[in-house]
Amino acid sequence: xxxxHGGHGHDRKHDHSHARAHDHGTHSHAHGHAHGHGHGPDGxxxxxxDQKRVLIAALLTGGFMFAEAIGGWITGSLALVADAxxxxxxxxxxWLAWYAFRLGGRPATQRMTYGFGRVKTLVAYTNGITIFxxxxxxxxxxIVRFMDPPPVLGGPMLVVAIAGLLVNIAAFxxxxxxxxxxxNMRGAILHVLGDMLGSAAAxxxxxxxxxxxxxxxxxxxxxxVAVLILSTAWALMKEAAHVLLExxxxxxxxxxxxxxxxxxxxxxxxxxxxxVWSIDGTRTIATLHxxxxxxxxxxxxxxxxxxxxxxxxxxxxxxxxxxxxxCADRRSEHLH
Length: 336
Fold this sequence. Notes:
Elements (H helix, E strand, L loop, with lengths): L39 H36 L2 H27 L13 H30 L6 H23 L6 H30 L4 H28 L9 H11 L3 E11 L5 E9 L5 H16 L3 E7 L8 H4 L1
Parallel strand pairs: 2-3
Antiparallel strand pairs: 1-2
Helix pairs in contact: 1-2, 1-4, 2-3, 2-5, 3-5, 3-6, 4-5, 5-6
Family: Belongs to the cation diffusion facilitator (CDF) transporter (TC 2.A.4) family. SLC30A subfamily.
Subcellular location: Membrane
InterPro entries: Cation_efflux (IPR002524), Cation_efflux_CTD (IPR027470), Cation_efflux_CTD_sf (IPR036837), Cation_efflux_TM (IPR058533), Cation_efflux_TMD_sf (IPR027469), CDF/SLC30A (IPR050681)
């Protein structure tokens, strides 16, 4: 069979005038614009709701950040200053997350053929790095203050910390109802959760200072919060980096999927040169070569492979290259 266009079953004389609704030969795409990866109506509605949730959280966090910064400066509390600094970067990060949702909802273009969904993952990775840097700064400042504890006004500190906790709780519940599988949403929740922990630590520190006058509790609790933030930030960065590096999603086993296709789809002799990755941590994509038994209908085999991937492995977009005999890609033996 002719495989002159990258082995995808295209004939060079093929008329591309119907590219908007093409069959792609045996490639069998039923998408709109070339390789469109739409979310579907439900995903679009969910994305709009998440975008609104992030916007509300950004307004709440940014609005209170100034009050907490002033309160921390007046009272001399590192816990409040650290939390205000955290809320500043959180506010920026939430605005970036909101913009990422807006940008991610744009349709694919001729140059950005997969759309802008990965922007959300990039923002999530950036958020993780930002949180990591803030936590390290808190640890450094806490060490300095522990060695030379400054005076702290416990009463005003307690009032500001309680107000901050209430604002952060409100923002957390606004975000908590969103899509928890979205790395962008998880990054936003992580920021607000870190603020909640910071406010809680400031409340405890203020109570101890009021009751005992022992000011070193302020930097000590700041370090404990920083350690918690570091662990969660590292987990977020690691997962976002895996998506950006196009690693196989954790819920999938590429070799097991290949073996399943070989054993389940009639006419398939071998599956090789298979790649499985995710655009944004939620949508999974696969490309593969399917070596068919002579006489097998290529269109039927490709359709069966796509159906098996969708129903059994939750891979709804796949590019399948049917082959007979020797693989058309000379490099496939090195990539297999």
